[in-house]
Amino acid sequence: MIQQNDPFMCLVVEDDLEEIEILRLALKENNNDNNFQMTVAQSLQEAFAIMDRQPVHLAILDLNLPDSHGFETFLQFQDKHFGVPVVVVTGHEDEELALRAIRMGAQDYIAKGVFRPELTIRAMRFAIERHRIMESYIGTAMQDELTGLYNRRGFLDFAAKQLRLSIRNEKDLILLYVDLDNMKLVNDNFGHRMGDQLLKDTAEILRKALRDTDIIGRIGGDEFVALALGAASEYTGIIVTRLMRLIKEFNEANQRKYNIALSLGIASFDPRSPITIEELLKRADQAMYMDKRSHKDWAQPR
């Protein structure tokens, strides 16, 4: 997470020296607060090596590199560094690939030959503003003591600000509402200490399933919410797939006396037709309730 006085590190993954220079000049001309720093990788594997050594807050990713081509480049990057915001770069004839990447979670795209530096700077400033807002909300008054996530007050206050930011930058959002199906069973069979462990395990899985830029909170006894920023509705499948895979892996590891079982509801936020965070939560809660009613075999304690 970016601290207030830390530089904002932008990784450019690009093998075209002319494009690299264009981006370098764009950053230099728009770096009014001297907070942007840029480093370059000319292949996907070089990018991964850099990110293993130092923090990166935004990646500008060419989809066609010496060691990876097309949409597979974006998929590999997401799989390796899911939490890092991405602006994709592609040829003008491959614009559909860029739009597909945006639907799957990329922040924005740049088309070669029609480069508009203001789009890149806007995406970078959007990421910086998000991180700074997140930084301002770190504190015990906004934090759930058990899980370390945002508490109800912190989530609602922070999410309301993110919705306003979304409207200003015309970025879609999705809200996930998660309810544990077997919390009472675990408490009744193994005691509240084990129930607390179930909550902490669920919080950790949600952290792994979502991006660093997403907001996660515990807003009730066994209720969690997550706001995925800059994500279109098509991106929902990625998040749900990751979440279900992580839960399956957790349960198969057989390290606890219980399985994790949950119900999930999802609601989308369209900045062109804005609603309040309370209304968004209500819609996601209703979807979660329908999911819970559809469950025939909830996981029991082991």
Structural class: alpha/beta
Mean pLDDT: 82
Radius of gyration: 20 Å
Q: What count of structural domains?
A: 2
CATH fold naming of the largest domain: Alpha-Beta Plaits
Question: Your description of this structure?
Answer:
The chain is 47% helix and 18% strand. With 302 residues, it is α/β, with parallel strands linked by helices. It has 2 domains: 8-128, Rossmann fold (3-Layer(aba) Sandwich); 137-294, Alpha-Beta Plaits (2-Layer Sandwich), CATH 3.30.70. The two termini are 38 Å apart. The model has no long low-confidence stretch (mean pLDDT 82).
Annotate the secondary structure layout.
Blueprint: E1 8-13, H1 17-30, E2 36-41, H2 44-53, E3 58-62, H3 71-80, E4 86-91, H4 95-103, E5 108-112, H5 117-136, H6 152-169, E6 173-180, H7 183-190, H8 192-209, E7 215-218, E8 223-229, H9 236-253, E9 262-269, H10 277-294
Parallel strand pairs: 1-2, 1-3, 3-4, 4-5
Antiparallel strand pairs: 6-8, 6-9, 7-8
Helix pairs in contact: 1-5, 5-6, 7-8, 8-9
Name a few traits of the molecule:
302 residues, 2 domains, 4-stranded antiparallel beta sheet, globular, Rossmann fold, alpha/beta, 10 helices, Alpha-Beta Plaits, 47% helix
